Please model this.
Amino acid sequence: MATASKYQTIADDVLRAVGGVENVVSVTHCATRLRFRLKDRERADKAAVEATRGVITVVEAGGQFQVVIGNTVNSVFEAVAASGVATEAASSGGFLARAIDLVTSIFTPFLWVLAGTGLIKAFLAVGARISPEWGESSTYAIWFTAADAIFQFLPILLAMTAAKRFKANLYTSVAIACALIYSATLPVIPGADGAEVTLDAFAAGGGELTFLGIPVVMISYLSAVIPTILAVYAQSHLERLLARFVPDALRNFVTPMITLAVIVPVTFLAIGPVSDIVGRGLSSGINTMWDLSPAVGGALMGALWQVFVIFGVHWGLTPVMLQDMVTQGYSLLTGPLFPAVLAQAGAAAAVLIKTRNRDLKGVAGPATISAFLAGITEPAIYGVTLRLKKPFIYACIGGAVGGSIAAAGGSAAEGFILPGAITVTATMGIGNFTMQLIGTGLAIVIAFALTMTLGFTDIPNPPAAEAPKPSGAAGGGVATALRTRVVLAPVAGRAIALDAVPDAVFSSGALGPGAAVVPTSGRVVAPVDGEVLTVLPHAYGLRTVDGVEVLVHVGLDTVRMGGEGFAPAVTPGSQVVAGELLGEFDLAAVEAAGYDPSTVVVVTRSPDGVAVTAAGHGSVGATDALLRIG
Model:
């Protein structure tokens, strides 16, 4: 609680000094600073911001009021965002990036619940196959209810997360979702025989369903994905419109009254039917591709799924899969995912056996287990296979072959699950389960065999640390106990002094001592051994075992590029050794965009009394000494 309070205090003080929330158009952040766009610059008190405890300095550039925080900027940014300030994270990048960000923000909060219930359904499928009588028991029914209910009432969860994303009233969004579900679950209108039926049952039975004389094309809104998201989106715009006209004294109850009275009928009249057509069209398109050549479709999914995961594009397919499950009970996209995922586990297992690097073995073991059993491939991808490059490619090859076989058998999972060895039983009821097992097993074998036989460039073990000298020895004290004595150049190029960097925050030493390199290539490597603390497309924060923290910032003001041209190869929490790849960037694209590519290396934290000095200037190669500590 104390830590959260500290960040909230900084956020509150900064917001007050820049003129309040109402004076902020939007805010984003980079590796070290909050970047405000203000309505009226004259209302911001720069001196008051700089005097705020936790603020290093203020820089004004490019139409932004930049508040330099340092390593804790992300925590302060979250506190600022929680105060109701509009953030720019959602709007950065092109259309595809924004679409992926939209889907991610809506589905991520409850994705693990979907995965958990999918796992229950997978176990139930095994039990029902082993004992058909048990599959008809009330015990099975109760467990199935626990697993299936979330899919039936999915609109409520979608309404909650969509309301947060679109900044709509949460409870009004839930009320809209409840109305959609209510239409398919509770009797509200007399049927042909006089008994009350649901709206969709009434329409399905041939009853004339109208609203103010306008015919209504009724669909089932149980499990509805696209209609719910679009309904909440429409709600958010209507609420903002009403906020301009409804008096404050009436707003609390008049706004939800009008919103529900308008959005629910509009959803039944237009949003729902159009969404249903679009959803069925997507599902039909996928099925048509599978009908033409399921082997080709499966090969593409098996080969590219983990590539999609790396770039976050896989989120764009989540609504398509869920829509398939709504319309037909399964998604053909899911069958090839098992070979794609488990092939990464096979490659990681081969690395575990073959590598001589102690740290890599420590990562590969748990990564293999989590990928194989639970389908969690991020540790395997970022910590092992992609890190070594070739094993990742071998796994994609295995995924392509296995995915082709699984898809050729018409295999698909029932329910939304994370593909893994445990959940493969979810494919027992759709298509040829034997071909699914053959494809998945072959994918694992191919990835494992290629990694073992063709190999990869192993990461050398770091040199053994020298034993610290006694404090009484010459040059003793805290400096002699440090293991980190040299900070390497993270890029090849021309080393320059920090005060020559044309950015006042860095050149003033406000963030700490350091140096910079004007790069000649776009390959960024770790300057020290340690843990990766933060990863932004253009910046990396690392901490060594003895507490030295280093910031690598690629280019000046390159946060404005929105990540385009940058490709991080590590994730927060990764352990790296000096010289290991952190990421890559397109040097030509940075320069073409008009940004200075100078890569700054700053020691943001070191033991008290320890000096940080430049190791030299001029031409340096990546991994040449750039700074000396102590």
